[in-house]
Amino acid sequence: MSFEKIKIAIQNSPQYKLLINKILSSDNISLKGLTGSLRALLITILSDHLERPMLVVMSDRIEAEQLLEEINELVVEDCVGFFPGGEEDPESPIIVNPRRVGLQMCFLQNLLLDRLRIAIVSSEGIAQKLPCKEDLQKDCFDISVGGTYDLYVLVDQLVHFGYSREVVVEKPGEISLRGGILDIFPYTGEEPHRLEFDGNRIESIRIFDITTQRSKKQVQSLLIISSPTAWGKCNASLFSFFPDNLLLFLQDPDLIMAGVEKEIMKKRKCMLSFDELTNHFNRFQTVSYLTLSSIGEPVDLGGRVPGRLGKTIAEIRENLASLCDTRKTVFLFCAGEERRKRIEELLDLIADPIARFHVDPGSLSRGFDLPSIGLTVLSDCDLFGTPPRQRRRERFKMGVPIRELSALRVGDFVVHIDHGIGKYQGLKKISVREVERECLVIQYEGEDNLYVPVDQMERVQKYAPKEGFQPSLSKLGSGRWEKIKTRTKLSIKTIAKELIALYSARQVLPGFSFSADTVWQKELETAFLYEETPDQTRTVQEVKADMEQSRPMDRLICGDVGYGKTEVAVRASFKAVHDGKQVALLVPTTILAQQHYRTFQERLSLFPVNIDMLSRFRNRGEQKKIIEQIKRGAVDIVIGTHRLLSNDVRFKDLGLLIIDEEQRFGVRHKEKLKSLRRTVDVLALSATPIPRTLHLSMMGIRDMSLIGTPPKDRLPIITEVAPFDEKIIVEAVEREIARGGQVFFVHNRIRSIYAVARMIRRLVPGVRLAVVHGKMEEKRLEKVMIEFGEGQYDCLVATMIVESGLDIPNVNTLVVHRADRLGLAQLYQLRGRVGRSDKRAYAYLLTPPFHQLNSEAIKRLRTIEEFTELGSGIQIALRDLEIRGSGNILGMQQSGNINAVGFELYMKLVEEAIQELKESKEKRIGGDSSETECQVVADFPAYLPESYVADAGLRVQVYRQLSLSQTDSEIDILKDELRDRFGFIPKETINLLDIAFIRLLGQKNNVKKIVLREGLLKIYFHKKWVECFDGSEHISQKLRTMIDSAPVPIRFLGGRQFGLCGSVSLDEALAVTKKMLQSWN
Question: Does CATH place domain 140-225 in 3.40.50.620?
Fold first, then answer.
C-alpha cells in the first residue's frame, strides 16, 4: 500500500509530468536525479502509465540483478524478466552453465508468450545473437492434461530439443521415463514436472519436489522450448522479440557500449557487431540516465541521497521526528515483516508513534529524498548506515537428493551388522519354496557370497570410513567381526561415561548470571545486515539462555565456514560486555585473529566497546600496553592467538571465553583452557561439522548447537571440472581481475609451486602474484596472507594451506591444479574459500585428460561439480569432515574404531551407548536382533518387479527406505510415493508393503517370528518376554483377545515354543495376521 502512495506522489510531481510529456512527444530524453531506488520506482510507474514494453539496459550485471529484485517488490504480477548474458565463449573449454541457460530460456519463453512488460539486460547480454522469433516458436510446444501424445515420440522429440534421459531427474534439461510416467525438468521451469499417461492420453501433470521426488501440486499444462544446444542458426537479436513501440531505458550508454565492446572481443562469433547494435538502439525511443553527468538539457527528477540520521537509536528517532515536523512524509522499508517489528520496537513507535512516519516490509537497496514534494524513502540500510545487501532469488535449484547419493552402487563397501564388512555385488532374484524373492548379494573374504533378503535391509549399511582408508573384507563365520564390534562398543561406553561425568560435574559449579537483553542488544541485532537462518536464531537463543543461568556456560557451536558462527560470537560478546565483563576470543592463527578483529570492529562500531588484538603482529611495546589495559579492564574484548594464554596476561574481570577451532591448540594450551572453564562462560566454535545424529544423541551430555543451514540468498558456486588447459587459466584469472576480484590458485606440490607461479605470470602478464606454502617462515607466510587480504595481490598461488580458516570476500575465483589428487572433503573445503560475497563465484578443478583418471577420482570430481547448490547433498560431501568432527568431540583415538566398523554403524553404537547410560538400563546394543526384531517368512512373492522399477539402484533405495520405516504412517507415505513416481502398484509390491507393516506390528507386540504358508499361520513370541509375564493374568488376557479377534480358529502352539497357530489360506493370511496383531494394542 505504501509503495502505491509513493508512486502516486511521484506521478503528481511536476518533474514526472514534464518527463511523460516528452516521452509522449516521441523525444529521446536524458535524465538526472535518479537516486537509490527511485530508478526502480520510475521504471515501474512508466511501465504502468505508458502500457508499452520496456527494455532496461544496465552497464553492470550485478546492478541489473539488483534492479530486477527491486522491481519485483513493486509489481503485483510476474511481468519482469532478466536476460543473463553468456559468460563464456561457446568454443571455450569451460563447460556451459545450465542455470544460466535455463534463465535465458525462461526469459525468451516469457517474451514469446507476451508475459513481460519490463525486460532487463546488462551489457553482457544485449548483443548476444539469438535464433529469430519465428524459428524459436517452431521449436516450442504445449503439453496439456487430456491431450493425446505418442509417449515414445514425445521422448524422442525432447531428446532432439536437447534434453538428456536419466534414471532420476535431478536438474534442468533432464527427463526420466518409467512405464507410463514421464518426468521432465524443463529448462524454463523452477521445478520438475511429472506426466502420467493412460495409454497415449495424459491423465495428469504434477509438479514434484526434487529432493523427495514426490508430487506437490497439479497443473494443467507445460510449455516446452528447445535448449540452445538444439538451436540452428543464430542471426537475430533480442530486439527482434519486441514490437516497434518498445521504450529503451539505458543507464550510462557509454559504459554499456564499452562493456559490449569487451564482450564482442571475447565472443565475436556469437555477438552482434558494434554497428549492428548501434543501429538497433537508434530504431527505438530512448530514455538515458547517466549517473555522473547528462547530455543536453536533462529532466531532473530531483532525487537526492538522504542524509545520515544519527549513530544511536535515540539520535535516529529524534532526527526522524524533526524531519516529519517539517511536513515531510517518511517511508521506511525493512527486509521482511520480522525486521519491521524489530525496528518498530527499537524506535518505540508502538507506544509513541511519529506522525507522517511509516514502517513497512519491502526490499529496497537504498532510499532517496525528493525535497520538492516533501517525500523521503529509506531502506533499513540507510537507517543504520550500512552498505546495501544483495539478495538474490535463484530460480533454478540444482543438486542431488541425499537419498540418491547415499544409494548403494555395485562395488561399494557395505557393513552387515551381524557379518561385517563386505562388497555389494548387486541385486539377485532367488527362489525359495518355489517363491521368487529379491536379495542383496554381498561378497566377503574368499569370494563367499551372502544373500540378504530385501526385507532385512536394515541390517545393511553403506560403509563410510575416513576418506582414503581401504577396508579389509570380513570372513563369514570366523567370529572376528564380533570381536571387533565388542571392542568398539567397550571403547564407546568408556568415552560416553567420561562425557556424562564431565557434564554432571559442571552442573554444580557456581557462575555469573548475565542479565536479559537490553535495548542496545536489540539495536545491535537489528543492525545485522542479513536474515538469520533458523539454525542461527536457535543457536543465539541457546547461547543467551546459557549465559543467563547461574552455572558456567560451556557450549560448542558446530557449523560450516560462513554459516554465521562469528555473528553468534559477536552477540554473546556484546551481552557480556554490557554487564561489565571482559571477553577473550582465542584463535589458532594470527590471520584468523586479524579477520575476527576486523569483523568485531565493524559490527560494534556504533557502540562504546573497546576492542583490541594481541598477537605477534603487535610489537613488544604494543603488547605490553595491551596487557596492561587488559589488567586494568580498559579493554572490553581482546582477540588473540595462544599469546592470550601466557601467564603475564591477567584479566580484571573475564566473563566470557570464546575459542575458535579448539582442536587446533596443543596439549599445554588445552590444560590452561580446562582451568579457565571452571570459572567463566565458554563458547567454542568449530568449522568442522558434525553429524546431526551425534548432535541429537549428545543432547543433555554436551551443550552443543548445530548450524547446518547456509545463509539465505548465498549464491551457489559455479563449479567446472575440465582437463588442464592454459586458456582456462587465462580466462578465469583475467575475468576475475577485470571485475576487481582476486584468485586462489591451488597447487599442492611445494617443489613445483614456483614453476606454476612463473607459468601464471607468463600467461597473464602484469598479474600481481604471491606464493605461500607450509614450509615458509611463519612470519613471512602471515605477512603475505594479510597483504593478500588487503588486496595487494591479484592471485595467490598456494598449497592446501588455504583449505580452512580464511574469509576473504573479494576472492571469488578458485583454480585447483591436479584436483584429481584431492579428496572430496578437501575439495569441498577449498571451494568454501570463495563465494562469500554478493559476487558470483567460480571454481575450476583442473585434471589430466579424463581417460587417465581412475573411477574413484572421477566420482569425487563429478560429486563436487554437481553440488553447486549450497545445502544439496551436503551430508555426502561432508562425510569425511563429519568423521573429523566426531573425532574432535569423542576423541581423535576413535578414528580407528570408525574405520573398523564404518561411520554409520559407529554412530549407531554411539547413540545406543549414550542412550543406555542416560536411562541407566542394561540392554544389549550393536545389532543383537534376537530380542528386538520380528522376522516374517511368507510363501508369496514380495518384491519390486523390474517391470515396475527398472533401475536396480532405485529398487535398493526403496527397499532401504521400507526397511528403515518405524511407523505404519511411514509405510503409507512410501506407498503413496511409489504410486506417484512409478504408477499403479503391482501385487508383489503390495505384498512387500504388507509384510513390512506386519513386521512393525510384530515388533510392537514382542513377536519373534511370523510364518505365513498355504494352510498355515504361526506366531512365535520372544522367550524373555514370555518369562517376564509367566503366569500373569495380563498376558493371558492379551492372548485371549488376539485369539478372539481372529476370523479363523486359532490355538496355542504345543511343545517348548510359545506362540499361536491356525489354519488359513495364503490369500487370507496377511489380513488375518494384521487383524490379530492390531487387536493387541
Answer: no
